[in-house]
Amino acid sequence: MSAQQMLKVFVTRRIPQEGMKILKRAGMCNLSVWDSDEPVPRAELLKGVAGAHGLLCLLSDKIDVEVLDAAGPNLKVISTLSVGFDHLAIDEIKKRGIRVGYTPDVLTDATAELTVALLLATARRLPEGVEEVKNGGWSTWKPLWLCGYGLSGSTVGVIGLGRIGLAIARRLKPFGVKRLLYTGRQPKPQAQEVDGEYVPLDTLVSESDFVVVSCSLTPDTQGLCDKTFFSKMKKTSVFINTSRGAVVNQEDLFEALSSGQIAAAGLDVTTPEPLPTNHPLLTLKNCVVLPHIGSATYSTRGVMSELTANNLLAGLTGSEMPSELKL
Ligand SMILES: O=CC(=O)O
Predict the structure, then answer these.
(1) 13, 67, 222, 276: least surrounded by Cβ within 10 Å?
(2) Ligand 1 center–CA 260 separation, angstroms
(3) Residue 323: CB within 6 Å of ligand 1?
(4) How far is the C-alpha of 93 from the C-alpha of 286, rounded, in Å?
(5) Cα four-point dihedral sign 24, 28, 29, 30
(6) pLDDT by residue (tens digit) across 243-254?
(7) SS3 for 263?
């Protein structure tokens, strides 16, 4: 391709080299990269995207009308290095005939694994235990010290039995889970594999010992876990969220945790991200907060970046994408 024919692509962050290699090797992109581990400032995003044919972005980049306008009519494809797409103004993107690539499947195992790790860490109070060892709080073996809750014989409720929800359920069942409840828009045939019982949300919330949120963020799920939701949970139950922070009303969660309405919470996602270090949730021993690392294994992030690059190239050439979001 001649220099004039090269297609302009803006990449909003330094991404794993696997993906960059694919983009460079394709020889059709005039690449402009925000070459940093930190998010691109809004002004730089608006500047960088101007005239672009392709945009490779992250879940922390809000791609709204302003960005689409700044890009202008050349923009053919947006490829996000994430399975979630709540950061994209989908209606507007669709209206403009822009295609969207995303990264389902390749991060399912890593995210499910992290969810299990967070659930166990929260339920068995691992961060508190580690802290006590370091600060001298470990005086002797005590029968009731640092007791938590176990999965064996428990009821687990999964909100959203999609790819990741099912992968979480599959991993939790062998711990001796007695009942596996789930909710969602409709019953899923694949729930059979984990003996999943499709129940109304209220039943799931009130009967589960562990409530695991694994749904996508939509207008229907925004703020779903609020005061009323937490008031229906058992006092001994544990709440886990590895989907999106905005599914939870954090003030109501703080109240539920600090009043003893629920036993504990483990969050890999918050609003905002990062959660300010003076946030009330961080003062609670029964709240374990992780910095949105669900898919963070070296290999998963490598494969995600490859898929993101291949989606982008397919969008630029008008061919079939490995993972296109149906708009
Ligand atoms: O949250 C992570 C993702 O959407 O990929």
Answers:
(1) 276
(2) 31
(3) no
(4) 41
(5) positive
(6) 999 999 999 999
(7) coil
